[in-house]
Amino acid sequence: MSSEQAAADARKAILAKADRLSLPEIRALLDQLGATGGVEPVGAKRTDANPVDASPVHANRESKRVRRRRTRAIYRLRVDLNRSDPAIWRRLEVHSDLHLDVLHQVLQEAFEWTDSHLHRFTLGGDSFDSNAEHFLCPFDVEDGEEYGIPAYQVRLDEALNQPGDELLYLYDYGDNWDVTIRLEEVLNSEPGTPLAQCTDGRRAAPPEDCGSRRTAEELAEVVDSPAAFDVATINAALAGPHFTLLAAGINPQLMLVTARLTTTPSYPQIAARMSELANPRPTLDPEVRNAALAPHLWFLQRAEGDGIELTSAGYLKPTDVEAASAILPAMNSWQSQRNREINAFPLLRFRESLQHLGLLRKRKNRLLLTKAGTESLADPARLWSHLADRIRANKPGSFEHDATLLILLFAATESGGLLHLTPIAQALGDHGWRTESQTLPTTAMLRNLPVLDVLDNLTSPTEARSNRCVLTEASVAMARDSLHVE
Questions:
Q1: Nearest partner of 127 among 212, 15, 35, judged by Cα
Q2: Residue 241 CB neighbour total at 10 angstroms
Q3: According to DSSP H, which parts of 260-332 are helical?
Q4: Long-range contact list for 325-330, CB < 8 A, 24+ apart?
Q5: What is the crossing angle of helices 100-110 and 231-238, to 10°?
Q6: Measured in whole angstroms, how far is the alpha carbon of residue 370 from the centre of its chain?
Q7: Which of 11, 115, 161, 447 has its CA 20 to 30 A from that of 178?
Q8: Closest CA to 134 of 142, 226, 126, 471
Q9: Which domains does the chain have, with CATH numbers?
Q10: Closest by alpha carbon to 441, among 266, 267, 256?
């Protein structure tokens, strides 16, 4: 047996016997065996804006996922709590294009759990089999779990395709609520079909932290009526505001960030903005869109062919700095030099953002178009969609991720004018974020986020500007589009 398999088996064995241990105790045992690395205390908040890679994938394992369906279907699922006696199960009908982090929320409501513990989905094996494919919750991703990718990156129809296909779900690594999700039937999707609904089931689910009780006799000690099952209660939860927003296509990661603010002073304003976000999006005139994209298109056009030649130090040449400064809105109020990029800070940030967003790449002291840049140059609508997708920070658990989503929420729910950063910084403080010196987040920290390099430059370069964070019709539309998942 390889050392890798031995570690995996040891991990599995410990978890199987760990019904009465707390999560810190379980992880301490795993650390002793070398199956995982050290972790931050549960509930601790990161204080840096450079989190670990959010896509750990074991190099020697092939993906077991399949191609996504071209059109949405309705999946009829039979969901069983394994080894329950009598069987505890639910029948759900859900959109096939749900991402697994949303399916996790549906399952929490179906079993009336409180999302107070870690979880993962597994395809092709049990929950800690190193040969299976694992889809991880944000904490496991941030902790550097070796096997798996984030659940928010995976759609349900990538895991389940044909009736009979199965996906495993594990919730609470202490009580080990392991659940089998089996695709029973693929149905046509009709307009207005709910995101998720429960159509049948049997018996009450075990409550949180009850020691993995699964039999009727054991559950009778902690549940008043083990045989009780009320489908109406579950569907009422699945029809609540949270799932209404998800059905409207609102980014699930925004939902998770704002949900953590429900008991804080920031929540009334957050809740009002979330409610407004569910309203239909106004259509942005293509001419307005294309005019707002002029700075991006200028760089893409300039990089076409042989690319943009840089100086030996890696900066734009003075002639390009002067030309780009004339077209970049953020340079409108810049009072310093406009012929050296190192002294034209808004321009430098914008140019670097084009690389960060995957539109340009540097090679042999030239800026060249990427594949996405070439496609975006040919189609401004594609460029718009690319920006809307890429400006969302994609590393849940990081300061940049949470701050970016809140900036987009505030920008998307303004009609224009100045984007006020103070309430966003306050919300991040209410969320629990602190700097390394344990001080609260500041507006200066927000001004340096890449999302503002995009929003700040979706406007005419001739428009008067006294500072950053001036919203226009185009930047409001960009924020709204970015927060909607198609």
A1: 15
A2: 12
A3: 267-277, 286-292, 294-303, 318-327
A4: 326/461, 327/294, 327/295, 327/298, 327/461, 328/295, 328/457, 328/461, 329/295, 329/456, 329/457, 329/458, 329/459, 329/460, 329/461, 329/463, 329/465, 330/453, 330/456, 330/457, 330/465, 330/468
A5: 140
A6: 24
A7: 161
A8: 126
A9: 73-125+152-242 (3.10.290.30), 248-486 (no CATH)
A10: 266
Spatial CA neighbour of 427 closest among 407, 413, 444: 407
| 3-state SS, residue 31 | helix
Q: DSSP class of residue 49?
A: S
Q: Would you say the C-alpha torsion 299, 476, 70, 170 has a positive or negative sign? A: positive
100: amino acid identity, one letter: L
**Predicted confidence pLDDT, tens digits, the chain (486 residues):** 444 444 444 454 454 444 444 444 444 444 444 433 333 322 334 333 333 333 344 444 678 999 999 999 999 999 999 999 999 999 999 999 999 999 999 999 999 999 989 999 999 988 888 889 999 998 888 788 878 999 988 999 999 999 999 999 999 999 999 999 999 999 999 988 999 999 999 999 999 999 999 999 999 999 999 999 999 999 999 998 888 888 888 888 898 899 889 899 999 999 999 988 888 888 899 999 999 999 999 999 999 999 999 999 999 999 999 999 999 988 887 888 788 999 999 999 999 999 999 999 999 999 999 999 999 999 999 999 999 999 987 777 789 999 999 999 999 998 878 899 999 999 999 999 998 889 999 999 998 898 998 998 997 666 655 556 888 999 999 999 999 876
Please confirm whether the linkage preceding 86 is cis (ω < 30° from 0): yes
Burial class (CB in 10 A: 0-12, 13-18, 19+), 419: buried
Residues 6+ away with beta carbon under 8 Å from 301: 377
Q: How many CB atoms neighbour CB 48 within 10 A?
A: 10
| Spatial CB neighbours of 262, under 8 Å, sequence gap ≥ 6 | none
Q: Which token pair is 367?
A: 């800026």
- The reported pTM is 0.70
- State how far the Cα of 412 lies from the Cα of 419, in Å rounded to an integer: 10
Query: CB 343: neighbour CB atoms within 10 A?
Result: 14
Task: With CA atoms as reference, report the closest residue to 111 among 44, 185, 208, 31.
Answer: 208
Residue closest to 142 by CA, chosen among 262, 254, 40, 291 = 40
